[in-house]
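=== RUN LOG ===
request id: a7f3
mode: sequence -> structure
chains: 1
length: 695
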Amino acid sequence: MPKNKNHIHPLRHQWKLLASLLFFLAITGHSSSQNTTIDSLNKLIKRYSTSNSLQEKDSVYVDALLSLGSAYRFKNQDSLRQLSEKSLQLSTQINYTAGRIKALNLLGGHSSDDGNSTTAISFFKQALKLAEKHDKSKIQVSILNNLGSEYSYQGNYARALERFLKAIDLAKLHNDQKMLSILNENIGNMYASQREYEQALEFYDIVKKINQSLNNEIFTAETLSNIASIYADMGDFDLAMFSINSSISVFEKREIYDWLAFAYSVKGEIYLKQKKYNWAIYWYEQCEILHKDLDDERATIDLNNGLAKAFLGIGEDEKARNYAYKGLESSKKINDLQGQRDCEETLYQVYKNGADYQQALTFHENYQKLHDSLSRNENQRSLNLLKTKFQYDQQKKALIADNDKALAKQRYIIFVTLAILLILLATSIPLYLNHKKQKQLNKELNLKTENLRDREAQLHEINNTKDKLFSIIGHDLRGPIGALQGILRLNASGDLPDKDFLNFVPKLKADVDHILFTLNNLLSWGYAQMNGTSTKPKVTCLNKVVAQNLKLLSEVANKKQIKILNQLPDNPLGYVDENHFDIIVRNLVSNAIKFTEENGLVSIECEEQHKFWQIIVRDTGIGMDESTQQKIFETQSTFTTYGTNNEKGTGLGLSLCKEMVEKNNGEIWVESVPKKGSTFNFTIPKVEKKYKKAG
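=== RESULT ===
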């Protein structure tokens, strides 16, 4: 995967100091190694800190601290954090706004490298807010790039693209060619991660043109490293190898060790994709040697997973397993879901290759869950929408410009026409009639526009329903069916003997029961949303429906040794749609069982009110806090949690219950205390005399 570029690179983006300091850094920062730069900055800071005139040069001292912190990135994260915090403290004391902004930006970079994405975004937003307040738009470009990169790491490409595009506008305003190169390359990386390689290479064409004008070999080498990774994913190994070899020669000469490590890793990946495992191991190990002196947790994930795959390819399963576990540990540490998924898949292959089918199945299920979760991510659709919006905005600007020209031309014509009208007053009558006709046409057009808006709203609602259905199908049906398919495939291929297969039968039955229950809810909800709920109330014996459902759910309850009590009166009659009442009772009792610990108690009661029956479903389960109680009935979400035995749910049950209760002129609410249980109440009309006569 290509590597995002950040504006706080230690060798390419030093903070501005005084003229003498800039000259000093130019020598150490562009013609020497990173270690030389760090040593030189340390000497400079020591010289300023012992100077008697330090008070007159406070901002210079802060900038030197910030430059040193920037140079420590990927070398020593603790030093980066300490120097950034010290710079922030000093900048606040001397009211040095630029120093505060830069320190917050560096702290955001440190948090990002440490896997604390939420903290990183918070620091970047603080820096951006301060820069906007003090009108420092040039610094905003760097912050927006870092913020966009962080959203990209999260997989939130929609927000990432918004920040990158905004930064590009500001960079163009200041003619900042370096940042335009970085921003376009980061957008290209985002498209590459979505496997939209043609779109990615279009952005890289822009980057190449900018780099040519900059004539900066380090910029060019970094770009070639990322392009090599894209060509490897596309299967064009000749172009990939040419690009990565060109970049490696620059990084080795200029001693840019963090990018050199990345380039070695890409070269290992190219050999791995060609199944040249020994060469892949060689280059991955070169990368591993460099990482001993680097502090870059994110980069080690692909490195360790690549080594695991390469060792698996030559039959050294133990080494493969060890490296895959190292990669999994790093990805969990910084919450990299894609890295977790890739390492889980490698471990599945390792254990399957070693005939440890139990472990293989565990990692396969973990991989499948992560894969499904990442596949459900709607960022691709958001990215396409934003891409369309971006193109639309550009077209809109062109249309506005054309419209201004047309208006100017119209004004001229009107002026000439008015002059003629002063002479030919009689022509005013046809013009008046034409105006009246135009007004009528506008009225008809407005009416048609309003109709189109109504239809658009309906289509939007239907589309939301479709998306919700597909989301639930992918989340709650695909997972169990995928697991079932995996077990059956292993059995069919002989990898899972029949006697071991029988051990999975109870799990398969539970998955099939879950699928059936989910389908019933899904079909009921989908029919109601797509066609409108048709309510057909009639005189219904409530006890009969409750008894049928308790019998249906007794097996599930018995597995958890939960006792179910039916405390309804002998013959309560309600005027309700019997199918709706059946669905409501089944979902509420099923939920009660789901969230009740073993040896618990679930009861269903009925209290007679003035015109209603109040049905009460109690449990001694885990209960809910107030925040959860406010979410469970929302119709626009699929909020769901796992039960006490990790039972799954669709997130539709309670919103479906609410909809059907209200369609039958009733109300539903919940009372719950965490760790003490929940009580769900709903009302339905009683059978009154007028209903009996109508029957």
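=== NOTES ===
The longest strand covers residues 677-685.
The chain has 27 helices and seven strands.
=== END ===
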